[in-house]
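WARN retry 2 of 3 for item q-0093 after timeout on previous attempt; input resubmitted unchanged.
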Amino acid sequence: MASLERRVAIDAARAAGHLLKSELPGSRRIAYKGSPTNLVTEMDARAEELIVGRLAAAFPDDAVLGEERGAIAGRSGRRWIIDPLDGTTNYAHGLPTFAVSIGLETAKRVELGVVFDPNLDELFVAERGRGATVNDRPLTVSTTATLDESLLATGFPYNIRETKDNNLTEYAAFSVRARAVRRMGSAVLYLAWLATGRLDGYWELRLGPWDVAAGSLLVEEAGGRVTNFVGAVLDIDAPAIVASNGRIHDAVLAVLQAIRGGGPT
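OK item q-0093 returned
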C-alpha cells in the first residue's frame, strides 16, 4: 500500500476520533434508524463528513461506503469503507467505548485497515502482507488454546426485540463453554482487541461492511482467523462473522453449527 493512502487514512481517523472525544461531554441529538435500539447522533454525521472530505480530496476517483451517507460511486476500482463512530449507543450515553474505522478495499479484498480509539489513544493499522500494529508496536493474537479458557465477545442485532434469530441462544451456549463472554457495543473494537490478544474470539450474526472491513484485516495480519459461520471466506458486504486467534476457531464454529446448522438466517 502506497504511503499516501496510509497517511491520509490515519490522519482522517485521528481527526475524527479527536472530534468525537472533544464533544463526548456534550448533550446529544439522537435519532433512530428504524428501531429504538439503532441510534444515530449528529456526531456520526459530523465525523463521517470529516473523513469523507479528506478522502475525497486526496483520492477523488475512489468509491466510498459510509455507514451514514451510504455509497458514493468511484471509477478507480477502489472503495473506502468507513465507520465514523462505532459504538454510537455508548457515545450517546457518554460511555467512552467507541472507535473510528477506515478500510480500503481493492478488487473485493481489504488491503488497508485503520482503527482509532481516541479514549485510549490507540491507533491500530494493518496492511495486507505487512502485519498489524498498535501505536507502531507489532500485534499478535493470543495463544489461548481452548474454548474453555477463552474470553469471547459478541453483540446482538438491532431488531433483537422483533426477531427470534437474535443471538441469545448462542450467547447462552458460549457463556457456559468459555471463560467469559463480553458485550461492550463496538464490533470495531472487538476485532482490534482480538488482534492485540486481549480477546480470544468474537462472533456476531449481522453487521455492516463498515463494522468489519478494517478490523478483519487487523485480525488476519496479527495471525488470527476470520470466516463466516461455516468456516468459509467472510463476505464483507453481508458479514456474519467468526473471528479468533485461530486456535479456538474450529471449536467456536462447532458450537455455532450445533445451534444453527447451516448458519445465519
